[in-house]
Design a protein that fits this description.
mainly beta, Lipocalin, two-stranded antiparallel sheet
Length: about 150
């Protein structure tokens, strides 16, 4: 979960669903299933994610991200694996430790952390390119309007 836009995270029987406001993109993390072999996965924008709970931490592994998708703006091969450890660090901070392993394009696995802040009163809006929620501020920096 590398969020540039607000997210909604829902847990239901057998999966965790992540909905991103931008373009209403949906990612599914299937719970308590074995990971498929890379060659058995049809590549997709979010790839194929499976996960399991280890105490209060959701541990997810993703394979099958399309080669054309620049995950975190990084080129990768079809051998890329993304491992996430997602934990609620405080009532309002979700911590995602992400490790990317790709033996074709990386010398060693790369790990970084993304912290997401809860916005309890925020409701996801419909967002498509025409909404024009992006703008340049008085210094020319790109910004996003979040009500």
């Amino acid at each position: 979960m590398n969020a540039m836009f607000p997210l909604e995270i829902l847990q239901s029987r057998g999966q965790v669903t992540v909905i991103e406001e931008a373009f209403t993109q949906v990612r599914r993390i299937l719970l308590d299933r074995p990971q498929k072999k890379i060659d058995d996965v049809e590549p997709g924008f979010y790839g194929y994610s499976v996960g399991k709970w280890e105490g209060d931490t959701l541990v997810a592994e993703t394979i099958g991200v399309k080669d054309s998708v620049r995950y975190n703006n990084m080129p990768h091969s079809n051998q890329m694996r993304i491992r996430e450890r997602i934990t609620l660090k405080s009532p309002d901070i979700l911590w995602n430790e992400i490790t990317i392993d790709d033996p074709v394009t990386l010398d060693k696995p790369w790990t970084y952390v993304v912290a997401l802040k809860r916005m309890p009163d925020y409701i996801l809006l419909e967002y498509v390119c025409e909404d024009n929620r992006e703008y340049a501020d008085e210094k020319g920096l790109q910004k996003i309007r979040i009500p």
